[in-house]
Amino acid sequence: MGKSLIRAKKVKVDGIKFASKLEGYMYNLLKDNKIDFGYESEKFVLIDSFDLENECFEKIGKKPMKLKSNKNIRQIIYTPDFVSESFIIETKGFKTDSFVLRWKMFKNYLHQNKDKRVIYMPSNKKECEEVISDILSRRK
């Protein structure tokens, strides 16, 4: 038997639908501390789309493996939860394998593009509060 996934409970705050209670909590902390930010307001293209010229045989679902040449490979985009000119915050309680890979790619993107914003990944309320303290301390 496989592991059961823990599904985040969606929450609505100020008319905004958040993917988790933790995102909603972070939103309220940022707002209450009068910190300027955007919610999912910036997208990063980690890998551009491309046409694969190789012959490629793949199995899709239960269908037999078949040739998929010249297949368009979609781009990989990453959208962090909260962004500003000085920070990026991704609230993440449970990290899937695919997220861990995307997060590494995102950090590489920031490195390659010399983006010096501070990045945070709080995974609980206490860590969200620590993020706020750090952001406020950097204002001085």
Brief summary:
The longest helix is centred in the C-terminal third of the chain and has 16 residues, at 97-112. Helix 1 runs parallel beside helix 3 (125-138). The strands form five sheets. The protein has a four-stranded mixed beta sheet with strand order 3-10-11-12, with no helix packed on it.
Task: Write up what this structure looks like.
It is a single chain. With 140 residues, this protein is α+β, with helices and mostly antiparallel strands. It folds into two domains: 11-43 and 79-138, Endonuclease, Chain A, CATH 3.40.960; 49-75, no CATH class. 30% of the residues lie in helices and 22% in strands. It is built from three helices and twelve strands; from the N terminus they run E-E-H-E-E-E-E-E-E-E-E-E-H-E-H. The protein has a four-stranded mixed beta sheet with strand order 3-10-11-12, with no helix packed on it. It has a two-stranded antiparallel sheet with strand order 1-2. Strands 4-9 form a two-stranded antiparallel sheet. Strand 10 and strand 11 (87-89) form a beta hairpin. Helix 1 (21-32) packs parallel to helix 3 (125-138). The protein is elongated. It starts with 10 loop residues before the first strand and ends with a helix.
